[in-house]
Amino acid sequence: MPSLSESPELSRRGLLKIGLCAGAFLSTAGLAASLSGCSAGHPASGFAVLQDNDLPFLRALIPVMLEGAVSAEKMPAASEQTLASLDHSLNHLSPEMLKLTRQLFDVLAMGITRGPLTGIWGRWENATDTQIHAFLERWENSYLSLLRMGHASLLQLVMMAWYNRAEAWVHCGYPGPPKI
C-alpha cells in the first residue's frame, strides 16, 4: 500500500486543505453546540459532569468497547459502573481538558455532526454494535489526525474508567494495589 506521500490522489497540499476544512467544520460544529446550549447544560441526574445529551452516546459506546472483557449478563451493570467512573474522572480533569472533552461529546451528540463524522445518522440508542465498531474503526484509521485523536481520547476515557474499577482487575490478572 502506498504511503500518503506516494499517493498521487492526495498531495501534501491536498491533505492540508482537507485538514483545514475538517478543523473548520469541527470548530463551527463546536461553536454551534455552544450557541445552541448543548455544552451549557447541567449535569444529568446522579452525575457531576456528564449531561443528558452525553448519556445515549456513552451508553451505546461503552458496551462495544468492553466487548470481550465483560460477559453479556454483566454488561448492563459494568456499563453503568464505567459511566459512573468516567463521570468521576471527568470531574477531576483540568478545566481546559474538560472543555475539550465536552466539545468532543457535543460533536458526537449533535445529529448534524454525528452523521457525517461517524456514519451513524440516527439516534445513538438505535445504533447497532456493527455501526459503532465501524465508527470506531473509521476514526482510528482516519487520515485526519483530529479524528484519530478523538478515537484515542474515547478509548482512553472509557478504558481508564473501566479498569479503574476493582471488578475489571480479574479479567486482566491484576491482583489489586498492594496492601499497606
TrEMBL record:
Entries under PROSITE patterns matching the protein: TAT (PS51318)
Name listed for the protein in its UniProt record: Twin-arginine translocation pathway signal protein
